[in-house]
Amino acid sequence: MDHIIFAIPLLLGIDFYAYQPVKILSGKKTPAFKKWAKWIYWSIPVIILLGFFIYGFIDDFLIGRNVRYAILLLFTFNYLPKVFIVIFLLIHDSIGILRWVIRKFSAKRDQKKLEGKPISRSEFISKAALISAGAPLAMMGFGIVRGAHDYQLRRKQVFLKNLPQAFDGIKIGHISDIHTGSFFSKTAVQGGIDILMNEKPDVVFFTGDLVNNVTSEVKDYINIFDKVRAPLGVFSSTGNHDYGDYAQWFSEKAKVKNFEDLKEAHKLMGYDLLLNENRHISLGGDKLGIIGVENWGAGRFSKHGDLDAAMQNTDDYAVKLLLSHDPSHWDAQVLGKTDIDLMFAGHTHGFQMGVEVGDFKWSPSQYLYKQWADLYQEGEQYLYVNRGYGYIGYPGRIGIMPEVTMIELKKG
Predict the structure, then answer these.
(1) Number of other CB atoms surrounding residue 217 within 10 Å
(2) What element of type H or E holds 270?
(3) Is the sign of the CA dihedral 348, 387, 83, 32 positive or negative?
(4) Pairing of strands 403-411, 286-292
(5) Which pTM was predicted?
(6) CATH no. for residue 157?
(7) Which domain holds residue 166?
(8) Residue 61 has pLDDT above 50, yes or no
(9) Judging by DSSP bridges, how do beta strands 403-411 and 171-175 pair with one another?
């Protein structure tokens, strides 16, 4: 709760500064209108502060996940537009200060030539409020309505010199970060699975975060994700959200039971969940190793993975593929330290917001993760970071769309 307490003065400062357009635009209205405008404006920050209290002190099972997501959504819709308003006001006020300095020290006193027609503060604020608050709200709304389930099929080829001839051209489907607890449209979710299955993958990998907080979230979606099938199997690993670490439990036994339920859910969907272990698939007498670790990242998230245990008895595999949720695992324990050829990850979601145009891509994710989306190569080792199938927090995506990946392995 400490970081929340420290954030409150900053948030209130944004609220007070962004209140100026409301105050000015309602200045010529009736006293009753001004009263209601003020009450409505300030009721939202009060609700958010109450939501922070709920986040920190009230048990998850008492409030339910929908209340938590409503608080997150309200927070985003309240403060993102206000940040834009504050930026406009700061620019306006900075220009005003600059003009005052010029008037004070300029030898030219003809202010009409110097300044031109002045713009009143109330006129500027009203326009800034409409433009700066309306644009991000529209963008966020579009991101929910269209972006949340606008699944993008991405195809990549990876050339591995040790790839057995029998596996040359094998197609691997890859999805990650399903987050069933966030979904609001079964039809749309099914659409993404249809895209995957239409590609007829030979094998499918899922790299963790099936749920947000508790395993019960997946119950209504098992009959969708169990449609994922492939001739050589469907293999999965766990992510940081799969362990119930973000829920409050009445007992440690209940938390353990939640994880057992998660493993059962993978089984019901037909996924072979790899918990610090490995499997192999065979074609024409050749074997390809599939290694799966529990969540392990270099950052603050829980570390359950044991790569050494997962790689036991894999020396005979000419090619080794690793399923590991957090891409920071690659630099920390895989790259240059193992003979793993290709690692599959997710976790970042590409921040669910950013810009991708051609080969150019930008997202706030890149300031947190060195590898945050797409294919990376160092020497003869590769990492693919999936942008995620679902979403969490903000129930949409802007610029960084949900992803279904097809990776073709080629000998070379």
Answers:
(1) 20
(2) none
(3) negative
(4) unpaired
(5) 0.79
(6) 3.60.21.10
(7) 151-411
(8) no
(9) antiparallel
> Could you tell me if 157 and 141 lie in one domain?
no
Place of tokens 């995506």: 397
Higher pLDDT, 344 or 38: 344
Phi, psi (deg, nearest 5) at residue 280: -140, 155
DSSP string over 11-55: HHHHHHHHHHHHHHHTTTS-HHHHHHHHHHHHHHHHHHHHHHHHH
Is residue 366 classed exposed, middle or buried when 0-12, 13-18 and 19+ CB atoms within 10 A define those classes?
middle
Nearest-angstrom CA–CA distance, 158 and 171 = 10
- Other C-beta atoms lying within 10 Å of the C-beta of residue 23: 14
pLDDT, tens only, 81-137: 787 777 777 776 777 777 777 777 765 545 444 444 444 555 566 566 656 667 777
In the 3-class helix/strand/coil scheme, how is 177-244 assigned residue by residue? CCCHHHCCCHHHHHHHHHHHHHCCCCEEEEECCCCCCCHHHHHHHHHHHCCCCCCCCEEEECCHHHHC
Q: What are phi and psi of 139, to 5 degrees?
A: -65, -45
Q: Is the pLDDT of residue 70 over 70?
A: no
Q: Are residues 291 and 308 in the same domain?
A: yes
Two structure tokens written together for 337: 């330290």
